[in-house]
Amino acid sequence: MNKTLPETLRKYFWDCDFKDISMDKYAFFIAERILNFGDMASLKWLLSGTDKSFLSEVIGKSRNLDKKTRNYWKIILHGNETTY
Known about the structure:
By secondary structure, the protein is mostly helical. The protein has a domain at 26-78. The chain is built from four helices and no strands.
């Protein structure tokens, strides 16, 4: 995955110094934001550059994903599996 974020993601990180955010340092935070608030283009970018196990970790450990979003992504990534 490209370590720097595309300019199209800037709108999700309005409260941060965008040029200092990278997947190397802040992958978990970036994934949380995009999973919670991202549009189709940003989700495609995230899904194309991360693996399922990393996203499962974010979904399982995040305190910032709302309940509906967390459940949605569990279904998308795992279908009817009962363990996450």
